[in-house]
Specification:
The chain is mainly α. It is built from 15 helices and two strands. It has a two-stranded antiparallel ribbon.
């Protein structure tokens, strides 16, 4: 399958970026009312810096067998939101049940040259394609989503958001191991199933969060997350026009919601969950930044780079001194005031930025560096899905494998 050549290919791609540019990009300096153009897509770049040049026995992920049981998830309804518990799929365990194996198996296939893991992935995809799994999992009804500081308020849209994350993980699994998947006799049918899910579920969420006037109190994490999902979709179907559409969408959202000081409208002002939601928001920004950089573009081309690094600095300060970060007040209608609902620790949902920008953070003179270095080294909940695309999780795995050679 040519897996041993991946590192050489990736190195060559990086060199081509620096010398001549793998993509032709026509950058603009404005955001609104203009167009950005990526004329060709780099689909062969590694989506995370795993430093695969090291021997596999030094990568903790390759040192033990896959522990999951895919037989339990071979069957999945077309609309799994009807059987989800609570306000979200994760409360009913379904979100994690389906997404976690996709993330781990795809990482094993790539990092460890583990064809058995990829064979298990194919078994899942063939079963889900046959059933049309997840394709009708759309909840149209809007809930109150913590309105009036009520932590128990109904928020049905979360269910569809989390189904979108399942399709994110499928898309990334394919892109990460594209040579393997494209060698299958039915690869077009499997890819078309994933693409259909992206168009029906991921695009629904991305479009739903693009109307600023209809959702004036929204924040960047939900707004940006599935713009990223559609960028992955563009790479899956190799369509620069689709990539450009969702890059423009992401730039608009970035420009609207991220303040000059790096705070994020709504997300950074959520009361006792301000720290948590700022972390989730920065996750989305970090994913977007990396995705356009792999196509030869940069936030610097749009005057957004300074705001990005300030948002990272704000995240460092937030997790270092959470009570101080919470003290700035509220914006929006969905902040929480009670201590029971407080989230101030680094969790799977809010820590992707820490791994995506680990070098910057560890070398920073800001905040609690011991805390951040410890989390990167230990890598708790390494396969906890959280509110991120599958692509982001493999960045996390990369950082963990670079800092730790043992299973924690």
């Amino acid at each position: 399958m040519g897996y041993l050549r991946k590192t050489t290919i990736f190195s060559a791609l990086l060199l081509s970026f620096s010398v001549s540019g793998c993509n032709t990009v026509r950058p603009i300096m404005q955001i609104e009312g203009t167009s950005t153009e990526t004329l060709s897509l780099n689909r062969d770049a590694s989506f995370f810096d795993h430093r695969k040049s090291r021997t596999q026995d030094k990568i903790f992920l390759c040192s033990y067998k896959f522990q999951g049981e895919i037989k339990k998830i071979l069957r999945a309804d077309r609309d799994i939101t009807k059987t989800a518990g609570g306000n979200s799929l994760s409360w009913g365990t379904q979100h994690i049940l389906y997404q976690k194996p996709l993330i781990e198996l795809s990482a094993r296939g790539y990092l460890c040259d583990d064809n058995e893991s990829l064979d298990n992935l194919v078994t899942l995809l063939r079963s889900w394609k046959k059933q049309g799994s997840f394709l009708n999992s759309i909840v149209i009804k809007d809930g109150s989503c913590w309105k009036g500081s009520n932590p128990n308020a109904d928020c049905p849209a979360h269910k569809t958001e989390e189904v979108a994350l399942i399709f994110n993980a499928m898309t990334h699994a394919w892109l990460l191991n594209r040579q393997y998947f494209e060698s299958l006799y039915d690869h077009k049918e499997l890819r078309n199933y994933i693409a259909l899910g992206n168009r029906q579920i991921v695009e629904h969420i991305a479009t739903r969060t693009s109307n600023f006037q209809a959702r004036p109190s929204g924040g960047i994490y939900a707004q940006m997350l599935q713009s990223n999902g559609m960028l992955l979709h563009a790479l899956l179907i190799d369509d620069p026009k689709v990539f450009n559409k969702w890059k423009r969408d992401g730039l608009r959202k970035f420009n609207r919601y991220v303040e000059p000081n790096g705070l994020i409208f709504n997300n950074s002002y959520r009361g006792t969950r301000s720290v948590h939601y700022h972390g989730i928001g920065v996750d989305s920004l970090a994913q977007f930044k990396r995705l356009i950089e792999y196509q030869g573009d940069s936030l610097k081309n749009y005057g957004l780079e300074d705001r990005y690094w300030k948002s990272i600095d704000q995240a460092i300060l937030a997790f270092s001194e959470p009570k101080k970060f919470e003290s700035k007040g509220f914006k929006g209608k969905n902040h929480l005031k009670d201590e029971f609902s407080a989230i101030r620790d680094l969790k799977a949902d809010n820590r992707g930025w820490l791994f995506l920008e680990s070098d910057y953070i560890i070398n920073s003179n800001t905040g609690n560096r011991e805390l951040f270095a410890s989390v990167i080294t230990i890598g708790e909940e390494m396969f906890g899905p959280g509110q991120m695309t599958g692509w982001a999780h493999n960045n996390i795995l990369s950082a963990i494998s670079d800092y730790s050679s043992t299973i924690r």
